[in-house]
Write a structure and sequence with these properties.
It is a single chain. This protein is mostly beta strands. The chain folds into 2 domains: 136 residues, Cupredoxins -  blue copper proteins (Immunoglobulin-like, Sandwich), CATH 2.60.40.420; 155 residues, Sandwich (Immunoglobulin-like). 8% of the residues lie in helices and 46% in strands. The chain contains 2 helices and 26 strands. The protein has a 6-stranded mixed sheet, with no helix packed on it. Strands 17-16-19-24-21-22 form a 6-stranded mixed sheet, with no helix packed on it. Strands 5-15-12-7-10 form a 5-stranded mixed sheet, with no helix packed on it. The longest helix is centred in the C-terminal third of the chain and has 21 residues. The N and C termini lie far apart (63 Å).
C-alpha cells in the first residue's frame, strides 16, 4: 500500500517576505501541502492509497474534500479506529490528524480541496482553495478488501467515572485575551490535580462566538457527547472542536504518566494569549512535591527578574 504524508500548513506574504508577527488569520493566506503550493501526486488507477492528513499550521482550519473518492478513516490523532468510517468531508482544526484510505477507480485528474469554512461570528471565514492535484493513470490495480476495524473499542466508553469537572472557554475580543474558567494561563499555577488510575469526565463549554479546538497532551480522551447529544466515538483522540456557544463532554483515564502537562486551545494565538492550563497527575490526587518545588523555583526566579527590572 502506498503511503503519503499530507502536511497542511499556511503562510502569508507581504512585500516578498513571509510574515511571522502580527498575523491576521482571517487575511488572504497561501495554503501548502508538504511545503509546496498545489503539488501533484501521481497514483495508479484503483490502487489503494493511505493518506496521513495533518494540520500542522498555527491558526487556520481546513475542511477537506477529495474529488472522485471518499475518505475511509482508519485512525484519528494516531489512534486506530474500532470501526472504519466513511466521510465525504473532514474538518481539521490546528493540530488535528487523520489517517485515511482512498482509491480512484477511473483514470483522470482529481483534486484535494479545502472548502469554505467559518469558525463563527468572532472567528475567521476561509474561502475554497485547491491544495493538491492527483493524477490517476495506468492499468487498474486489482481490487483488495479494506479493513472494517483496526482496534478494539475504547474501554473508556464503559469506565466508571470517578470525577466530573467543568471548564469554560471564553475570550475578550477587544483586548485579544483568552481564558479557561475566567483565568489566563500562568506558568506557576496548576489548574487541575488528578489521581493516577482514575477516570474523569470533563464538560468543556465554549461561551465565545468562535470555535476553539480543545487539545490535551499525554492522555487521549473519548468524546461522549456534543451539545448534550451522545456521540458514538470509534477511537480516542487528543483534539476536538468546541462548537460556538456549545459544549463537549469527554472522558479520559490517567493510566501511567505521573507529572504535569498542559491542555489548551490549539489555535496558538489563543493559547499564547491565555487559553491554556496545567494538569498534574499524582499518586494521591494532591499536588506533588516535585511540582510544588518547580513552581516555587519558578516564582522565585520571576520575582528576581522583576526586582532586577526595577
Amino acid at each position: 500500500m502506498q503511503q503519503h504524508v499530507v502536511a497542511l500548513k499556511d503562510l502569508q506574504v507581504k512585500n516578498g517576505a513571509i510574515l511571522n508577527t502580527n498575523i491576521d488569520s482571517n487575511a488572504p493566506t497561501t495554503r501548502t501541502v508538504n511545503g509546496q503550493v498545489d503539488p501533484v501526486l501521481t497514483v495508479r488507477t484503483n490502487e489503494t492509497q493511505m493518506l496521513r492528513l495533518a494540520n500542522i499550521g498555527a491558526d487556520i482550519w481546513y475542511r477537506l474534500q477529495l474529488s472522485g473518492a471518499q475518505f475511509r478513516v482508519i485512525a484519528q490523532d494516531a489512534n486506530p479506529v474500532a470501526q472504519v468510517w466513511i466521510a465525504d468531508e473532514l474538518v481539521l482544526p490546528p493540530g488535528k490528524r487523520y489517517d485515511v484510505l482512498v482509491r480512484w477507480p477511473n483514470a483522470g485528474t482529481h483534486t484535494l480541496k479545502t472548502l469554505p469554512y467559518s469558525t463563527g461570528p468572532d472567528g475567521d471565514n476561509y474561502p475554497e482553495r485547491r491544495l493538491m492535484t492527483i493524477k490517476v493513470e495506468g492499468d487498474p490495480a486489482p481490487d483488495i478488501a479494506w479493513p472494517t476495524s483496526l482496534a478494539p473499542p475504547s474501554p473508556l466508553a464503559t469506565d466508571q467515572v470517578d470525577r466530573t469537572r467543568q471548564f469554560v472557554f471564553s475570550e475578550n475580543t477587544k483586548t485579544n485575551q483568552f481564558y479557561i474558567n475566567g483565568k489566563q494561563f500562568k506558568a506557576t499555577r496548576v489548574n487541575v490535580v488528578a489521581k493516577l488510575g482514575t477516570t474523569e469526565e470533563w464538560i468543556i463549554k465554549n461561551v465565545s462566538r468562535e470555535e476553539h479546538p480543545f487539545h490535551i497532551h499525554v492522555n487521549d480522551f473519548l468524546v461522549m457527547a456534543i451539545n448534550g447529544q451522545p456521540v458514538e466515538s470509534y477511537s480516542e483522540q487528543d483534539t476536538v472542536p468546541l462548537p460556538v456557544g456549545g459544549e463537549v463532554r469527554i472522558r479520559m483515564h490517567f493510566k501511567r504518566f505521573l507529572g504535569a502537562y498542559v491542555f489548551h486551545c490549539h489555535i496558538l494565538a489563543h493559547e499564547d494569549n491565555g487559553m491554556m492550563g496545567i494538569i498534574d497527575i499524582t499518586k494521591n490526587g494532591k499536588l506533588s512535591k516535585a511540582t510544588q518545588q518547580a513552581l516555587d523555583k519558578m516564582n522565585s526566579q520571576m520575582a528576581g527578574q522583576h526586582e532586577g527590572h526595577q
